[in-house]
Amino acid sequence: MPIIFVHGVATRRERGGGRPYDRRVAARTALIRRFLAPATGLDPEAVRILNPYWGDQAARFRWDGASLDTVAERFGGTAEAEALLAEDAPEEDPPPAARTLLGAARRSPESAVDLLWSAAASVESAGAADFDRLAVWAERAADWAAGTEPDDLTGLGDDLALFNLLAARAAGEPAGPERFGGGTGLPLLREGLNRVQSAGSRLASRTAAGLVRRRVQEESATFVGDVLTYLRQRERHGADGPIAAAVATDLEAARRACSADDPHVVVVAHSMGGNIVFDLLSNLRTDLSCDLLVTVGSQVGLFAELGLLPAVTEPPPGAVTPAHRSPRPKQVGRWINVFDTCDVLSFATEGIFDGTEDYVYSTGRGLIRSHSAYFLRPSFFRRLAHRLGEPR
Question: What is the pLDDT of residue 77?
Fold first, then answer.
């Protein structure tokens, strides 16, 4: 059973020579193997995971983003940690650098685990094998965080104490230094902690709002550009549009990889990726199908309301009732839609489509964390895995 991940907007491989993109794919793939494969009845070691890439066919800024705000300083090497901390930061002065991670944990233990994973996943030297090992820690740490209250951490004095506790508890050992061996990802976690603390120091000397504004503006502009580019390609080329064709190629490959003993295809689609997959299966390439579709932070419901999805059956004017919901495409077996109430770019589906399952994943955070970082969070994978494993 192949698992296909279709990325969303603002994903570009060419940035940083492709290395940041490759790291993100490797980190996400490790979490998919560790959390989602078992939840769908698959062997984590044997499952084939496909990652169709369409960012090179999407929007391009002809003047290299000159229309964006160029006054604010761009993110530095601790970009992901800074972005996450900026929106999670309390209104009062941030804690000292040595208590940056602990400060996050005292607001939400799950946030601290997510932050440490995200920072470790940005280490330039990390490879696929490193992330596979680190995902073992992430699974255990996510379980620990889900059962921990902020008040349980009152006895900890600094980040190092929390780090040792996280490492040891996740490994099922007594808390203490050097309990979590390097073979399971300790060097990456330590570098991740350094990056978290460095990001905290930078935030202490700069305005978090400025960091957030720049990031939001860049991602919003690229979101609009990618959406318009896809719609223009569909109008001109239909199923042969470059973006649609890139995703369809891996959907075809996944179906070819199926067998009588293992006939299923799973698709996980983020943001605009969900709109593309829906449009392909219901309209452009009805010969393709999937047994499970998981849309995350997606706009399929909004696109349907705006009449941008040709296969959707619209209700009569002034007569919107559950009886007038559009049927789920026959090419889709089970459809789970996940959205965050804090994510202004994610939308529900149950009021529009018959046969979908809407689930709320609420972080209580702002736009950057809620839309761009679902798949950077072990806590999200843990909750999604539990949902996939539940009987319908």
Answer: 44
Structure letter (DSSP) for residue 291: E
Strand partners, 144: none
Angstrom distance (rounded) from CA 388 to CA 392: 9
Q: Which domains does the chain have, with CATH numbers?
A: 3-62+212-389 (3.40.50), 79-205 (no CATH)
The residue ranges of the chain whose pLDDT is under 50 are: 71-77, 90-91, 174-182, 205-206
Query: Cβ of 115: how many Cβ atoms within 10 Å?
Result: 29
Contact yes or no for 259/45 (Cβ under 8 A): no
Q: Are 221 and 96 in contact (CB under 8 A)?
A: no
Query: Which residues share a beta bridge with 327?
Result: 354
User: Which amino acid type is present at position 14?
Assistant: E
Classified as helix, coil or strand, 363 is coil
Q: pTM of the full predicted structure?
A: 0.87
Q: What is the pLDDT of residue 208?
A: 52
pLDDT at 389: 86
Is residue 249 within 8 A of residue 50, CB to CB? The reply is: no
- β-bridge pairing 290-296 and 357-360: unpaired
> Which of 11, 113, 93, 105 lies closest to 54 in space, CA to CA?
11
What pLDDT sits at residue 93?
A: 61
What three-state secondary structure class fits 145? Answer: helix
Residues 167, 28: Cα–Cα separation, whole Å: 21
10 Å CB burial of residue 304 (0-12, 13-18, 19+) is buried
Strand partners, 49: 3
Do 361 and 330 form a contact (C-beta atoms < 8 A)? no
What pLDDT is attached to residue 81? 58
And the tokens for 372?
Answer: 């761009």
pLDDT computed for residue 341 by the predictor: 86
Q: What pLDDT shows up at residue 12? A: 92
Return the pLDDT at 161: 95
Look at strands 3-6 and 326-327 and give their pairing.
Answer: unpaired
